[in-house]
Amino acid sequence: MATAIYPGTFDPVTNGHLDILHRACHLFDKVVVGVAPNARKEPLFDATERRDFILANIGDLNVEVTCFKGLVVDFAAEVGAVALIRGLRAVSDFEFEFQMTQMNRDLNQDIETIFLMPGARYFFTSSTLMKQVSYFDPERISKFVPLNVAAALKRKFEHD
């Protein structure tokens, strides 16, 4: 049974992330979504909230969602994954993803990286953009994030 991991911060999960997840499920028997901390930025939602947002939107997919810390290749090996799923939206994503892929390959040659692109309507969506737009007008992001995420973003920014 081929397992892949789809790691990310998912702060918060977007419909673009879910689109990539659905695509990955067509390629692998099982996909483990790894919700990670991000040392480069302060997350708006804690890891448990981010995990729960994803769990509420996976339906009957053969997906496991868990939080992890540490190197993604170590997490992949721990769950028996043969591949990492990474989403690419635009050429601007490629340089960072290329460097990360090369490092991961050096750390564990047995784990491949698979790049998937979301559907065209999600090319420009990112968690950062969703938070920025939601801060000013939460009603306008409902087509880009799951309903539970839109509601949570609205609650987060009601008190600002």
The proportion of residues in beta strands is 15-25%
Regions with little confidence, pLDDT below 50 for 5+ residues? none
CATH superfamily: HUPs
CATH-defined fold name: Rossmann fold
Structural class: alpha/beta
Let me know the largest β-sheet: 5 strands, parallel
Rg over alpha carbons? 15 Å
Specify the CATH class.
Alpha Beta
Tell me the series of helices and strands, N- to C-terminal. EHEHEHEHEHH
Shape: globular
Compose a concise summary of this entry.
The protein is of the alpha/beta class.
Task: Explain how this protein is built.
By secondary structure, the protein is of the alpha/beta class. It has a single domain (3-120), classed as Rossmann fold. Helices cover 43% and strands 17% of the residues. The protein has 6 helices and 5 strands, in the order E-H-E-H-E-H-E-H-E-H-H. It has helices at 15-27, 47-55, 72-79, 91-107, 127-136, 147-158; strands spanning 3-8, 30-35, 63-67, 83-87, 112-116. A 5-stranded parallel beta sheet has the order 3-2-1-4-5. The protein is globular. It starts with a strand and ends with a helix. The model has no long low-confidence stretch (mean pLDDT 93).
